[in-house]
Design goal:
398 residues; mainly alpha; hpI Integrase, Chain A; 3-stranded antiparallel sheet; 3 strands; globular
């Protein structure tokens, strides 16, 4: 591997895009797949600049930006380090080799993070991979890279898309979601939360934060980015056609799309309890900038997605530990809990809603699987029916 690829203090190891320095023969300025016409509509002179131009389109959507940067970064580093050629010289055959590489990035010492460590991008121990990619993650990586190559061709930077020959008909989606908690495992998670210590002020604050977090995930089916990125000012109340007051939560979600989620009476009780524990009035006012989830003993700033993820994983670990104490018969269920992540709670919410025979259109709108049309803003009667059915059929069950 050229010295230009190393990060400070870790000779021979790849560096993130922002620290990468490539020699002229590997920077793509003379790549064999570069477009030779003068119709280029981006100012990029090399592969790093071209990738930066592509990523700039996603700068306002942090999750998308991070995912796209990760895949472009991995391919670029593999191209120069393993193949000894710039990204703009990769062929169709190279990309077939890269697909196999994703399933087992070797040598692991060069490409894979040490277990239990998650250093920052500027740390010498940083690596592009956490481990081998599952088949679904491999497919997603190639979809993202196909989008990158297609855009660079359209921009006049590349002559052709080396992945165009590999495009296949999408596989049929699995008939059922598998990454969710069955009702008995959801009960185990609630039990683990309920047995958390509350002796000290800090323990008590942590308990109520965890209880509120899991209530929010389960009752609303939110994504982890939606929990970290929204505020309590999103809660609002309006009367339905029968004159009954109903609470809602307005969420800005994936792709900056806005949706409203029923805030059931059960959830509002949990919200009021959590706010009181943090010295706040029980109900938020419009424009309340308080984050949906608060740090402990610090200024009211939003938690990062990584911090929320860590909280959820620790609860799952504790629940799994409780199951293991029940005997060997519970080992498989404990293993499943240890595999779970925050996103499993979103799938759990959706699965449990459908299990209770909720109208699939209501489940779809609760989870925000499809963008709302302009007309839906006027369908208050349909919204009221969705709220009523969510209230009746989808309960946290503390």
């Amino acid at each position: 591997m050229p010295d230009n690829l190393v990060s400070a203090g870790s000779s021979g190891f790849p560096a993130p895009l922002e620290h990468l320095r490539l020699p002229a023969e590997l920077d793509g300025s003379a790549g064999s797949n570069r477009a030779r016409s003068a119709s280029t509509v981006i100012a990029a002179q090399n592969d790093l600049q071209a990738i930066a131009a592509w990523l700039a389109r996603f700068a306002d959507t942090r999750t998308t930006f991070d995912n796209y940067r990760k895949e472009a970064e991995r391919l670029l580093l593999w191209a120069v380090a393993q193949q000894g050629k710039p990204l703009s010289s990769l062929t169709h055959e190279d990309l077939l080799v890269y697909q196999r590489f994703l399933a087992d990035p070797q040598p692991a010492s060069r490409w894979v993070l040490a277990r239990g460590r998650k250093p920052g991008r500027s740390h010498p121990a940083w690596r592009p991979f956490a481990g081998p990619l599952a088949p679904s993650s491999q497919r997603q990586a190639m979809v993202i890279l196909n989008a990158l190559f297609s855009w660079l061709v359209t921009a006049g930077y590349l002559a052709g898309n080396p992945l165009a020959l590999s495009r296949q008909r999408a596989r049929k989606a699995k008939p059922r979601q598998t990454r969710y908690l069955e009702p008995d495992l959801w009960r185990e998670v609630r039990a683990a939360v309920e047995t958390m210590p509350r002796e000290t002020d800090r323990e008590r604050e942590h308990y109520f934060r965890v209880r509120w977090l899991f209530s929010l995930f389960y009752a609303c089916g939110l994504r982890i980015s939606e929990v970290a990125g929204n505020t309590m000012g999103g809660f609002f109340c309006r009367r339905d056609q029968a004159g009954e007051e109903r609470w809602w939560l307005e969420v800005t979600g994936k792709g900056s799309k806005v949706r409203i989620v029923p805030a059931t009476a059960e959830l509002m009780v949990e919200l009021a309890r959590y706010r009181r524990e943090n010295g706040l009035p029980p109900l938020p006012l419009p424009g309340d900038e308080t984050p949906l989830l608060l740090p402990i003993g610090a200024k009211p700033r939003p938690l990062t997605r990584a911090a929320v993820h860590a909280i959820v994983k620790e609860v799952f670990r504790q629940a799994a530990q409780r199951l293991r104490h029940q005997g060997e018969d519970s080992a498989c269920r404990a293993d499943r809990l240890e595999q779970a992540s925050a996103h499993w709670l979103r799938h759990t919410a959706g699965s449990h809603m459908t299990d209770q025979a909720m109208d699939l259109r209501h489940v779809r709108d609760n989870l925000g699987h499809e963008s709302l049309t302009t007309t839906s803003g006027y369908l208050h009667t349909a919204d009221d029916a969705r709220h009523r059915e969510t209230e009746e059929k989808h309960r946290i069950g503390w």
